[in-house]
Write a sequence for this structure.
């Protein structure tokens, strides 16, 4: 569990951000290189992010079928719309030149700031990004939109690499309170699907006899 | 408002809870006028289905009057509607193929992970059921929020009473799909295990779909009497060896199609079921699939097996070799309710189904705890219970005198 260190009021995130920066420096280019290498070594046609055992992967990848044309999905994937379907993203502030500052909810009521730069855009197909040095969490990633066969819509692939604050222990803690980036990314991608297909983000909000819940708010 | 809540094994209580609110544009709010207790509610009552939380509002067979609508709802205030138990968006890959109970959007992102791990893919969503299927508040309450209200609810003409149409929400389409899944051909003999409400609608459906004979299996006299009334020949499994009887009734080949309307909590004092009961008591197994085992062994070679009965996980002593060697075709699944409601409503109006005579009791919503106990313990007398939020506490009306075979 990320905690505070003797009297230091700053979250551990900032303390370990330095560690993370090294990874960001290597960043997406290295992942692309290792991806190509793995592809050469493997005989499977599976997506590259599935080729390592789940525990030892450096990156997270998730694909979802969304029943909409890829042009519509590409057009909707803008930082301004992220708070609509990214549950832990509080605000995204565009800083110009493809850079944006994200305020994201973190475990224990904290907030972390990500500063990400879009590094590549292929219109209608893919968007890649990488974090800037001042980002609390070093991260890089790519979202890709491919036509699904038979007029089924679009396969949306989200690929993410990040340096977990507090390393393995921090990751475990974040997982326990469901603010771990992989859990968030998977759920956010599914919310994007709901929003694109149905026009709204699905919620189970409703009454229960549990005093802690509100009838207009989602619950687990 | 008042609502029936699940509190634990064999414990339900009627509590005062907050009213539901419109949350999304496609939502509507219903004032419930009739709400039934389903056989699958007993799986929750017995805590056979994992993923319930104390305080959950129960109920997935209900109808009522629209009292509020979101901006994108197509319903109008004042309309009377029956609501399918399956919550379905209408726009995903599955809904477009009318596989409504497999909807990939209705189970929220926060609740879908558990069933994704358990089942291999996340389950769809339903009202008033386990959090595996979305954790939605159910309709055994005065009011309920209906998501995607432009897709599911069936508007009911004024001349039809609640009792005529209430079962469009679940058990009528479930019986209909069970019979469709048996791919019935002219001349077929169809054997149906379980004469609960789903079994009784499966009997009617199989005959409407052209079965030459339907043979129904149970042990409760009133339920067997209803099966006979709807046109089935009946077997009381306490009196006869079911497989021997089925063989002798079909010239030794067995029924062409077998339908398991029992599910995970088979009754019966047979060796396999006693072992299952003991294992289930100690949480070593979730299933007691005695009826399904028997159906596989009874079915004719190259026959069809339809499984509307609810199962939750892994079963053992499953006759897989028998299934394969006999070349059976299996169809199963939760009901794609929205696919059938239009034609079934028309058939009700044409008088093709008897939707009323299986209802044994009307009772006040306030008496739900007692009704759950009776539904669980007195299955011979209580064949179907409809709760009415409008009725005064303590009013239980026996709707009709049940015959016994």
């Amino acid at each position: 569990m990320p905690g505070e260190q003797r009297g230091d009021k700053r979250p551990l995130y900032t303390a370990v951000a330095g560690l993370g920066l090294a990874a960001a420096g290597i960043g997406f280019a290295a992942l692309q290189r290792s991806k190509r290498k793995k592809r050469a070594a493997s005989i499977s046609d599976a997506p590259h992010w599935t080729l390592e055992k789940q525990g030892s992967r450096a990156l997270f990848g998730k694909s979802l079928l969304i029943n909409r044309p890829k042009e519509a999905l590409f057009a909707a994937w803008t930082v301004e719309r992220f708070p609509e379907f990214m549950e832990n993203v509080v605000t995204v502030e565009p800083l110009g030149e493809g850079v944006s500052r994200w305020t994201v909810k973190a475990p224990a009521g904290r907030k972390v700031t990500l500063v990400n730069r879009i590094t590549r855009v292929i219109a209608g197909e893919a968007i890649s990004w990488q974090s800037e040095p001042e980002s609390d969490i070093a991260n890089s990633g790519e979202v890709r939109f491919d036509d699904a066969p038979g007029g089924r819509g679009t396969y949306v692939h989200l690929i993410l690499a990040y340096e977990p604050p507090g390393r393995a222990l921090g990751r475990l803690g974040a997982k326990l309170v469901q603010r771990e980036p992989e859990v968030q990314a998977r759920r956010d991608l599914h919310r994007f699907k709901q929003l694109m297909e149905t026009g709204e983000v699905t919620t189970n909000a409703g009454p229960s006899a549990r005093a802690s819940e509100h009838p207009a708010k989602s619950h687990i | 408002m008042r609502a029936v809540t699940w509190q634990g094994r064999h414990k339900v209580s009627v509590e005062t809870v907050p009213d539901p609110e419109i949350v999304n544009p496609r939502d509507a709010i219903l004032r419930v006028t009739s709400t039934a207790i389903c056989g699958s509610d007993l799986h929750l009552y017995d805590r056979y289905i994992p993923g319930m939380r104390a305080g959950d509002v129960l109920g997935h067979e209900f109808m009522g009057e629209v009292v509020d609508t979101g901006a994108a709802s197509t319903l109008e205030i004042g309309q009377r509607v029956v609501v399918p138990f399956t919550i379905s968006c209408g726009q995903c890959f599955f809904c477009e193929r009318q596989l409504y109970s497999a909807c990939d959007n209705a189970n929220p992102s926060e609740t879908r992970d558990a069933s994704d791990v358990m089942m291999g893919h996340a389950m769809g969503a339903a009202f008033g059921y386990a959090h595996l299927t979305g954790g939605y508040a159910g309709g055994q309450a005065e009011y309920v929020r209906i998501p995607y209200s432009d897709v599911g609810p069936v508007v009911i003409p004024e001349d039809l009473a609640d009792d005529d149409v209430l079962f469009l929400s679940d058990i009528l389409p479930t019986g209909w799909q069970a019979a469709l899944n048996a791919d019935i051909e002219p001349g077929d003999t169809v054997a149906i295990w379980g004469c609960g409400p789903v079994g009784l609608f499966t009997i009617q459906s199989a005959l409407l779909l052209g079965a030459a004979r339907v043979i129904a299996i149970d042990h409760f006299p009133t339920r067997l009497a209803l099966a006979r009334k709807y046109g089935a020949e009946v077997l009381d499994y306490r009196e006869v060896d079911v497989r021997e009887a089925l063989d002798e009734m079909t010239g030794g080949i067995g029924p062409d199609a077998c339908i398991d309307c029992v599910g995970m909590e088979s009754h019966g004092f047979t060796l396999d079921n006693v072992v299952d009961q003991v294992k289930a008591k100690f949480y070593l197994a979730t299933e007691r699939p005695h009826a399904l085992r028997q159906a596989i062994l009874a079915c004719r070679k190259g026959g069809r097996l339809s499984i509307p009965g609810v199962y939750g996980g892994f079963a053992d002593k499953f006759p897989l070799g028998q299934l394969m060697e006999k070349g059976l075709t299996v169809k199963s699944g939760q009901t794609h309710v929205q696919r059938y409601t239009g034609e079934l409503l028309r058939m009700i109006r044409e008088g093709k189904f008897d939707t009323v005579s299986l209802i044994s009791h009307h009772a006040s919503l306030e008496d739900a705890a007692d009704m759950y106990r009776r539904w669980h313990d007195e299955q011979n007398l209580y064949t179907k219970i409809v709760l009415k939020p409008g009725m005064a506490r303590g009013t239980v009306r026996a709707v009709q005198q049940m015959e016994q075979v």
